[in-house]
Amino acid sequence: MDKPTSTSDQGKLRFGRYVRMFIGIVIGVFLVWRLYDVLVVEHKFGADTWVRFGLSGLILGGMYALIAIGYTLVYGIMFMINFAHGEVMMLGAFGGFFVFEALRFIPAPTLADPKLNFLDAHPIFSVFLAFAVGISISATAGYFLEKIAYRPLRKAPRLILLITAIGASIFLQNLAMLLFGPQRKNVVNPDLLDRGAGWTITVSGNPVLISYTGVFSLVLSAVLMIGLYILVQRTKLGRAMRSVAQDKNTASLMGVDVDDVISKTFIISGSLAGAAGVMWGIHMGLVNHYTGFLPGIKAFTAAVMGGIGNIPGAMLGGMVLGIIEATGPAALGIDFQLKDVIAFSILVLVLILRPSGILGEKLSEEKL
What we know:
Layout: H1 7-42, H2 47-78, H3 85-104, H4 118-121, H5 123-150, H6 158-180, E1 185-186, E2 198-203, E3 206-211, H7 212-234, H8 236-246, H9 248-253, H10 258-284, E4 286-287, H11 293-306, H12 311-332, H13 339-353
Antiparallel strand pairs: 1-4, 2-3
Helix pairs in contact: 2-7, 2-10, 2-11, 2-12, 3-5, 3-6, 3-10, 3-11, 5-10, 7-8, 7-10, 8-10, 11-12, 11-13, 12-13
């Protein structure tokens, strides 16, 4: 039973709440003033531009959400932040890139086009194969990362695991640079997912392009997130994952293979990151050894924003962060190169004003 809080401790807690409330009010007033100035007074952008920003934010948010779920799954099971998760995503992006590159050089001539390659002749199969390879590579990387780097240190202090995760991140970055080179690779999509093609709608008399790659990425992200939520809530493996997250010792006494559940959690986490990596290459068009670093850190921000350990919170946090990142610079009237500053400022503000996140952090009694 917890000891009763002393009067001085209660006073400190109240003072802390007042300070956070004051900071929140100041920030809120500043944001309202900037939004009014940009949207009403200056009126720099039309409705069509805001629609473009919103669509871009939704697409980014879907990818951030997939990566953020990987953070929150591992955190819920092991109570650690896997900072190598962004690099696991990067390996999946390279897997998709090399599949497309290989298929481009396999001839598949037809009478109509004797120079046709396999990538354009069979685009659906090519995309499916790219995702299968990218997901497999990332899932394998996640499995061995847990088995080699984290399992021997499972009972070590949390700081040791954190340092190990950062070391694993640096190792995978440099390994990818040595294997694939430091240059950015241009991802050539099949014609079906041409980045310049899509549906055109009219907003305020101006055309707005809804790209095929954007819709594909957003829909696939939503399907994967729904599938994961069903897996965690409705399957035997999901029940085992939730029981291990709640109390490893009790779960083990009830017949749950804790090591196996943790390994499968890393495989699932890696699979989602791999899918996000392939989507990133298809939509953004460029991959290199540094591809996963910033998206990985931003996805961690999304996980904290939604409530670390909370799967719906990670989904919500990813979508909110993507929209804020896409619309924030325009709404605040600042340079678009500062979008990363906005993302990381959100992390700081969430940690100060609401450390438990939007939907609340989920912790077992053992972790508390």
